[in-house]
Amino acid sequence: MPAHVKPVAGPHVDARRPPTRGQVRPQAVAAPPLRTRDVGRSTNVRWHQATVQRADKERMLCQRGCVLWFTGLSASGKSTVAATLESILHQNGHYTMLLDGDNVRHGLNSNLGFSAEDRAENIRRVGEVAKLAAESGILTITSFISPYRADRDAVRARMAPGDFLEIYLRVPLALCEQRDPKGLYKKARAGKISNFTGINDPYEEPTGAEIVLDPYDEEHRMYSPEELALRIFDHLTIQQYLLPVPSTASF
Ligand SMILES: Nc1ncnc2c1ncn2[C@@H]1O[C@H](COP(=O)(O)OP(=O)(O)OP(=O)(O)O)[C@@H](O)[C@H]1O
Ligand SMILES: [Mg+2]
């Protein structure tokens, strides 16, 4: 029973007599109310402390929870590399969650457009969801263009040091436009899409990304999505986000 909850007398307890051994003295005075606060527009809220701790979950999952935040132009390969990374992590016995820009706009953020304000709210909500997941020990992968530095930095600022890893797919506009898997660059060039990042909306490059992935090696050979994902996997292993998984498990 939590400390603030006062026991009440059961039917076997006579409140007028002093309690004998094993009996509980009835309380005439109610416990003081728990303190609440206002957060933004949420009034009278109180943080409820969980009993199962993050460290307990991380021990169970053999990993340290974090947010792997992919950023880059449309068609830079965020969704492709993120999904490849998730497969590699899964095959190695790790527990993941993938929040993809287009998918989140099918539900949670379907009421948001592409104005600067809506993009900021899109990233804020995803950042909060990702934070909750990471704090539950999950390797949380997000793939959003997230073009504004301030929006990405605001997500980082909400998290503990080491919980947020920014992964910049530094793919030049020309290559993205050449790939154009959804035909969006073509539409944007034809003036059919406004606010399209790289064409008529800005993309602000990260200045302190933990991982920067260029598309080509020194011989101008293009890295495959698997090679790029393995670079991230190696980083996570070296930085001890991934702990040894018992060899009896099969996935
Ligand atoms: N080496 C590579 N790495 C990543 N993607 C590649 C590579 N080579 C070719 N591609 C292709 O480039 C395209 C990248 O599209 P993808 O949807 O992953 O980009 P995105 O960054 O998620 O874009 P958006 O922001 O529009 O969702 C895919 O069609 C993918 O097959
Ligand atoms: Mg995508």
From TrEMBL:
Entries under InterPro entries matching the protein: APS (IPR002891), APS_kinase_dom (IPR059117), P-loop_NTPase (IPR027417)
Annotated HAMAP family: Adenylyl_sulf_kinase
Top EC class of this enzyme: transferase
Keyword ATP-binding: yes
Residues annotated as domain APS kinase: 64-214
Organism: Auxenochlorella protothecoides (Green microalga)
Keyword field contains Transferase: yes
Protein EC: 2.7.1.25
A Pfam entry, by short name: APS_kinase
GO BP: hydrogen sulfide biosynthetic process; sulfate assimilation
Record function comment: Catalyzes the synthesis of activated sulfate.
Gene3D superfamilies in the record: P-loop containing nucleotide triphosphate hydrolases
Catalytic activity, as annotated: adenosine 5'-phosphosulfate + ATP = 3'-phosphoadenylyl sulfate + ADP + H(+)
Signal peptide stretch: none
Family indicated by similarity: Belongs to the APS kinase family.
One GO MF term attached to the UniProt entry: ATP binding
Location of region: Disordered: 1-28
Protein name per its UniProtKB record: Adenylyl-sulfate kinase
Pathway membership: Sulfur metabolism; hydrogen sulfide biosynthesis; sulfite from sulfate: step 2/3
Alphabetically ordered keywords of this record: ATP-binding, Kinase, Nucleotide-binding, Transferase
